[in-house]
Amino acid sequence: VGDGVVFDLPSGTRSTSHGSALCVFSPGGRHAFSPGWLMELATQAQTPLPGTEQCRHVVFSLDASRLAAMHKWATPELHVFKTQDGSRLLQASFRGGLIADMDLSPDGRF
User: Which of 1, 9, 63, 102 is the least buried, fewest Cβ under 10 Å from its Cβ?
Assistant: First the structure.
């Protein structure tokens, strides 16, 4: 996977990358996730999200208050974080099955 770059399209400003082509934006565009990192786009403040460095399946809740990231190979591992401060709310491993997809409720509670 090559380097990923985030651009502010109106200004053409280039943001910092962490060596991944995956980038997922929150609803409303306040945050962006790149494996291992959460960025607040307005300030470009970056918060490390330990355990998500190899995640390739990521969703934000509709209100953008939560981020869920999951490995989809070997033993699937799920991480859920608060986007406000990057604190981990859940870390769980799932054995004996493949998780095909995931989503969060609009308010991020489930």
Answer: 9
